[in-house]
TrEMBL record:
Keyword Disulfide bond tagged: no
Annotated protein name in UniProt: ABC transporter permease subunit
Family: Belongs to the binding-protein-dependent transport system permease family.
Record's subcellular location: Cell membrane
TM regions (residue ranges): 7-26, 32-54, 61-85, 97-118, 203-226
Protein's membrane topology: Multi-pass membrane protein
SUPFAM superfamilies: MetI-like
Principal cellular location given in the protein's record: membrane
Organism: Alkalisalibacterium limincola
Keyword DNA-binding: no
Gene Ontology annotations for the cellular component aspect, listed alphabetically: plasma membrane
Alphabetical keyword list: Membrane, Transmembrane, Transmembrane helix, Transport
PROSITE patterns from the UniProt entry: ABC_TM1 (PS50928)
Length: 237
């Protein structure tokens, strides 16, 4: 118990003392996860809207595939990206392996199915509600699609928060393609795993506290936005 209390005290000192090593790791985690979510949003939100709005051959297969990939094992995603970026892989010439870019790629691969599948569900519900209205107003395909995305913005932000939470909690895939290199590709989850195995409990605890606070904030924000979205739908009804 004394060892734990001492480690916890040192962890707090690292946090409030703005320890450069700890906050560099936190910064790397936020940059990688944030960039992955932005890329997934740029690709996934329009794709989810198209899947919700327009029937076309093969749509069911794509939807089923996205739903299945929401449970993609991270280590499998890491292995796939590793093979693509390794020296003998098709993208090996770019030297991206064991860089933050590789970590963004693998986290985007994990977040993208979540964004596509959940945004499709959100927008499909709105399309069922507003299909006749948008058609009667003469809204074209792209205008109606944009209107649905704007109206679903609170729900879509919640979707992106879910993706951000998945990215922040990831460890296996990031370690495979990033290498957990100090000062370069070390994130909170990989650093916690490493420092715990080394016995450096203060740094691991400090990072764990930050990670828990971030997860808590993300969940609170998602809950608040979800409640606002439900109230808005209730008022329109």
């Amino acid at each position: 118990m004394n060892d734990f209390s001492e480690a916890f005290s040192v962890a707090l000192a690292l946090l409030f003392g703005l320890d450069p090593v700890l906050w560099q790791i936190v910064s790397m985690s936020l940059r990688v996860a944030g960039t992955a979510v932005v890329v997934a949003a740029v690709i996934g939100l329009p794709l989810g809207a198209v899947l919700a709005r327009y029937p076309f051959p093969g749509r069911g297969v794509i939807v089923s595939g996205c739903n299945a990939l929401m449970g993609l094992p991270p280590v499998v995603a890491g292995l796939v990206v590793y093979l693509l970026l390794s020296r003998s892989g098709p993208l090996g010439q770019y030297g991206l392996l064991f860089t933050p870019t590789a970590m963004v790629v693998v986290q985007t691969l994990l977040v993208l199915p979540i964004v596509v599948a959940l945004s499709r569900q959100v927008i499909a519900g709105l399309w069922q509600e507003y299909a006749e209205l948008l058609t009667s107003l003469g809204a074209g395909p792209w205008r109606s699609l944009w209107a649905l995305i704007v109206d679903a913005r609170l729900g879509l932000v919640t979707v992106l928060l879910a993706g951000f939470g998945r990215a922040m909690a990831e460890v296996g895939a990031v370690m495979i393609v990033g290498g957990n290199i100090a000062g370069h590709t070390r994130t909170m989850t990989t650093a916690i795993a490493l420092e715990t195995s080394r016995g450096d409990l203060p740094l691991a605890l400090g990072l764990g506290i930050v990670l828990l606070l971030l997860v808590l904030l993300v969940n609170l924000a998602a809950t608040w936005l979800g409640e606002r979205s439900r109230r808005a739908l209730g008022e329109r009804a």
